Fold:
Amino acid sequence: MANIIKTLKGTKDILPQDVNMWQFVEENAKKIFTQYGFKEIRTPIIETTELFSRGVGDTTDIVNKEMYTFEKSDRSITLRPENTAGVVRSYIENGMSRLPAPVKLWYKGPMFRYERPQAGRQRQFNQIGVEMFGIKQPTADAEVILMAVNFLKSLGLNDLDVEINSLGCPKCRAEFKEKLKSVIKPYLNDLCEDCQNRFDKNPLRLLDCKVEDCQKIYSLPEIQEIIHSDFLCEECSSHYTELKLYLDRMGVRYKENKLLVRGLDYYTRTVFEIKSNNLGSQNAVCGGGRYDGLVSQLGGEETPAIGFAMGMERLISLIPANEQPKLDGYIVSNFPTDAFILAEELRSYGLNIEFDLTNKKFTKQLEKASKCAKYAIILGEDEILKHQVSIKNLETGNQITVNRENCKENLYL
Structure:
């Protein structure tokens, strides 16, 4: 017997019995995001590697360690590890800056990162996300955060914590970085290799480290004093204060987390995460923030922007399993041609109908109908001769016989 070919490590089949949960999440995303004026965009899974090295940042773990990159026809191509850069590329390339602001876009689809598989995260994983372009005011930040919360609530997820922070703008952040480096430098040799590499390239990312020994160092009083200092310039401070006022007025409960920096280089000012208490240490279900410099960084005009992304696998792991949807009807008959014709007739009305393709015994068919359908549609010799059908409600056991042309109306009951 030949060896069975299995899925690659970090990939997973989404089986028919699980697909309804995915559709539930996707349909709620479309419903909620549409209410806020967001329109769906679908970008390619493959992009030029330069898009991510310029957009995501060459100091990030994603670019340095996790991207699936290959050479083809003298070009470097990468399977997208995230989709903000791709949406920004599309925004620029397709001239969306000429549209009235705000331009609101949402997406769903697979992403690819070479990392250790963990709870709710695979090497091929799926994200739902949104991007809003053209609004610099904190109203955009508040709307995006509120929309994320309302979307999660629509899925039945209420045990959530919203965390926010402001990273400031490049101007006010520069002084903070230097102060941070000065207090951390004496401990540089005790930090992990990643933190040592980030120290000069992007010291703000030091705060994102999950290594326990590094976290202990960053918890020292002199380092905490710098972390919790008010380094924001007047404009950034005003933006952050207004955001909190909006969230307060909209009833969004949140916590400020000065260690929240997110893992991507393009964030400015507002960053946020929404966490679930049911996922252990890797508990973030939504992450996002403002990236006012990314559009110009990728060749477009200066454009304020904000967005978020959610991992669908993590979302689905939190949603209680529900029953598989049942067929509207299952035709029970030992006359396969007549059953086939009736099935097609009922399907033409938008009903979900099946019949036994192998013409099993009547009792076997009825047994299957009771497991997968709301109604058994019985088509015996008498029914065929009289141009009738018998309809059995498989929940109550009630059975009626009606003229064939009235069959569909009785399946809607």
About this structure: The first strand starts at residue 39 and ends at 40.
